[in-house]
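User: Fold this; tokens only.

Assistant: Input:
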Amino acid sequence: MRNYEIMVIVKSNLEVENAKKEIENIKKIITDGKGKVVSTNEMGQRKLAYPIKKEINGLYYVLTFSSDNDTLNELERRIKINENILRHLIIRLDEE
């Protein structure tokens, strides 16, 4: 299992409860794949650098987790088809 960090930008026009539900779905994908969510950081609403799908604001969330490669691929696949998520970025944290 490797350690990863994901930043997710959710549409700002969603209600806060629906945005949190999207993050819970991401956590569920990780835990169903035998991964472990280490931390979740809600960064709040911020202005985007440029409009994405006609949105100028987004709700930012950062999750730190550990998972295997198959779970990571499934997570990325499901995020790409979710219309409520504007952007995401997954980085692998260094092993120390």
